[in-house]
Write a structure and sequence with these properties.
This is RBR-type E3 ubiquitin transferase. The chain is about 35% helix and about 15% strand. The chain has helices spanning about 1-10, 15-50, 60-75, 130-140, 165-180, 235-245, 290-305, 310, 320-335, 375-380, and strands spanning about 85, 95-100, 150, 155, 185, 195, 200, 205, 215, 250, 255, 265, 275, 345, 350, 360, 360-365, 370-375. It has a three-stranded antiparallel β-sheet, with no helix packed on it. The longest helix is centred in the first third of the chain and has 39 residues, at about 15-50. It starts with a helix and ends with a helix. The relative contact order is 0.08.
């Protein structure tokens, strides 16, 4: 402290520069807040006009990019540690002040400040090491997070700095999740995944020490030698229930899938894409892409998110039914949205359409299809 005071006394301009830096940061925070608010209002105005049949010029890319940059800098401020030098203009020779600006980068998930050694993922977002490790751990339990990714770009495992045992477990899970028509041990108390290399002549051997039970790869029950597969009453009951409920079975991992909303283009948690009508791989059939009842149900939900005054107080004075019809038409056009046009921060909270979790304070809305997602899903799932 004494040395810092002495230096400031030698160079009174140093304190002035520090004050200027603090004022600049305060102004930047205010500019960021105003810009993001105006961006949200402009997006709402364009959406309301679109529902009314009015064509407006889209927000210029440079403005949108600046707003998104400010949004990210608010959540993940990318202020790197750059040395700042205040030159000495006093009569004392060869004295200068060199200091480092405090790091202001925030983690893309928890929004806590990161440190210099924390990893930056391929999409250029910064993660604190604990959040990145948690993502890799969760991906071993939740298939929708495998492979770990951010902004649709896969994250190299070496960035997570896992232990050798964790890497071994991760590689095993990655193999399991990427295997088509998986086979699990038929012993109910085991159910260990049987890798393809342990399946010989249609019979898989459980790799778990102390188990070693053999399983038929056709009927998934205990192996039965060369005899035909016996009737599996439990599986038959599940398939009967699925048929009555209208569920479909993924052709790749054989998991049951239920359509809650959206088009018939299904993406399973194993990442296989197929038609919900005929259950064959996507774009290999001529089935319709939409169920009209589901389409209009989804259109009503998304229209309800638009403030009433924006939905009805337009130049054309459209009513609720017309707004729903326009939204249905937009959903038909954007039913395969990849959410690459960015996300709008939306206050008020709600339920994430991807994972189903309720967030009380905010969600993110896709600029193109109005899909609502939590931060975890928009970063690591979609």
């Amino acid at each position: 402290m004494a040395s810092a005071i002495a230096i400031d006394e030698l160079d009174p301009n140093s304190q002035l520069l520090r004050n200027f830096d603090d004022a600049w940061r305060a102004d930047l925070a205010l500019i960021r807040q105003i810009t993001l608010q105006e961006m949200q209002e402009e997006e709402d105005r364009i959406l309301a006009a679109r529902l009314a049949g009015i064509t407006l010029d889209a927000i210029p890319d440079d403005v949108r990019n600046m707003a998104m940059l400010l949004h990210d800098s608010d959540n993940e401020s990318n202020h790197e540690d750059e040395p700042k030098t205040v030159s000495n203009k006093s009569n004392v020779p060869n004295i200068g002040i060199t200091y480092k600006q405090q790091k202001k980068t925030k983690c893309a998930l928890c929004m806590d400040y990161t440190i210099k050694t924390d990893p930056r993922v391929p999409c250029n977002h910064k993660y604190c090491i604990s959040c990145l490790q948690e993502l890799f751990m969760k991906s071993m339990q939740d298939e929708t997070l495998m492979p770990p990714r951010c902004c649709q770009k896969q994250i190299p495992i070496d960035l997570a700095r896992l232990t050798s045992k964790q890497i071994e477990n991760f590689n095993a899970k990655q193999l399991e999740y990427s295997t088509k028509d998986r086979l699990y041990c038929s012993q109910p108390t085991c159910s260990t995944f049987i890798p393809p290399k342990l399946i010989v002549n249609g019979i898989g051997t459980c790799p778990k020490p102390g188990c070693g039970v053999t399983t038929c790869s056709i009927c998934k029950a205990a192996s039965h030698g060369k005899f035909d597969c016996p009737k599996d009453e439990a599986t038959a009951a599940v398939l009967d229930t699925a048929h009555k409920a209208g569920w479909k079975r993924c052709y790749q991992c054989r998991a049951m899938v239920e359509l809650n909303h959206g088009c018939f283009h299904m993406t399973c948690r194993c990442h296989a894409e197929f038609c919900y009508v005929c259950a064959i791989p996507w774009k290999n059939c001529k089935c319709p892409q939409w169920d009209e009842e589901n389409l209009y149900r989804e259109a009503r939900v998304r229209t309800a998110r638009i403030p009433a005054h924006q939905r009805t107080q337009t130049n054309n004075g459209i009513d609720l039914n017309e707004a729903i019809q326009r939204m249905a038409n937009q959903l038909r056009a954007n039913h395969e949205c990849r959410h690459t046009n960015g996300w709008a921060y939306t206050r008020g909270g709600g339920r994430c359409e991807e994972c189903g979790h309720f967030l009380p304070q905010y969600l993110f809305r896709c600029y193109q299809c109005h899909f609502m997602a939590c931060n975890r899903c928009r970063r690591n799932r979609l």
